[in-house]
Amino acid sequence: MLANLKNVVRVPDLRNKVFFTLAIMAMYRLGSFIPAPGVDVDALQELQKSAESGGGVLAFLTLFSGGALTRFSVFALGIMPYITASIIIQILGVVIPKLEQWQNQGAVGQRKITQWTRYLTIAIAGMQGTGMAVVFHQGGGGFGRVNNPLQRDVLPNFSVWTVLLLVLTLAAGTAVLMWMGELVTQKGIGNGMSLLVFASVVSSLPSQLGLIVKSDAGIPGLTAFLAGFLVILFAIVFVEQGQRRIPVQFAKRQVGRRMIGGQNTYIPLKVNPSGVVPIIFASSVLYLPQLLSFVLPTGQDSWGVKVQEFVNNYIVQQDSLVHVLVFGFLILAFAYFYTAIIFDPIKQADNIRKQGGFIPGIRPGPATERYLSKVVSRITLPGAVFIAIVALVPSLVMARFLKDQSTSFSGISILIAVGVALETMKQIDSQLMMRNYEGFLK
After folding, report:
1. Phi and psi at residue 181, in whole multiples of 5°?
2. Which CATH architecture best describes the domain 204-409?
3. What are 226-246's pLDDT values in tens digits?
4. What is the average pLDDT value for the chain, to the nearest integer?
5. Is domain 1-200 given the CATH code 1.10.3370.10 in the classification?
6. Rounded to whole angstroms, what are the CA distances from 50 to 216, 382, 409?
7. Which residues does 47 contact at the CB level (< 8 Å), separation at least 6?
8. pTM of the shown model
């Protein structure tokens, strides 16, 4: 391991890429501590204390901002608007013919899709920034403790110009993060956007460990947490590396004076092809009732208060049976939905047929389509069940250990961190292998 680390430092080009990536991530973490203009810093500190002792939607949103949300920094929105825009564009690519045409145009079409993704990201950031300004002006709304929201105004000088300046600042922060992520992708190592999310997720680990030590669980609870962390880590690596390889044979054919084809290859189908996207979708849908309940009437003995209590106690509460069942079902449903979007059996079968290939024992055409659909449906189920277990079980355990405190670091965090780390290590390995060095992954 030490020899491999020396090889990374020894290669000038790879060393510069790694240091450049680390510098960008350090700048991102620095920016997450710079407060946005017009906010009350004292009220923000109370919001952070309330967030540590509560739950609600804040735990999930803070995960992707690395704590920048509760600090209301210039990077408060994080990279989440870009992730949302990318998913929306990918889904619309199945519906809108123009986007599908761009997807098939190679690099030229990809540049157009990237440009429209940027436009949509800024639009989403503007809407989210406006919503955040209103919610924080109301004292944090449901972003603090579920049953005891803050009453202090985080934006005391609330006016049209203050909100406009704040929204522009937050949207500009998201644009800067997009630029930083693309710089890492081009000049650094790994996927820039994923690494920014990785930095946000990992940055919350020390504080979460501190919460466990301060709780009633103490050091034994910390030991149990670390042991469970390692078990989940190994399980995620095992599943993420798992593939179903469908063999494909290409018949020999003569083109001019050359004989081409005749080779055997395979289609690698991951056990979990959708990654953490189903969890993001399910979390957004699950927390939508809580966000909508904020606008209900809150007078004494009002029906809105009863609805808020039901949503907070059964829908949002992590150790609630209703929350577990609904969240698990949504993860399974979105896993199948997103897998159907990113893998089209009809298009895949058509490509194999056009290239003169076939799956052994399966006739080309409709039979290949049905076979691929059956295989994808079968391997999606265990992958979806696995990510549902990873998302639910650690959160349930943490909710039992830390009953009065929220935990943003959970199975979702480990899933994201491991996935990004594996992809980055693969890129470093490929760079070392190109220069005749031994890599990290065996």
Report:
1. -65, -40
2. Orthogonal Bundle (1.10)
3. 888 888 888 888 888 888 888
4. 76
5. yes
6. 19, 38, 17
7. 70, 136, 140, 143, 144, 150, 154
8. 0.76
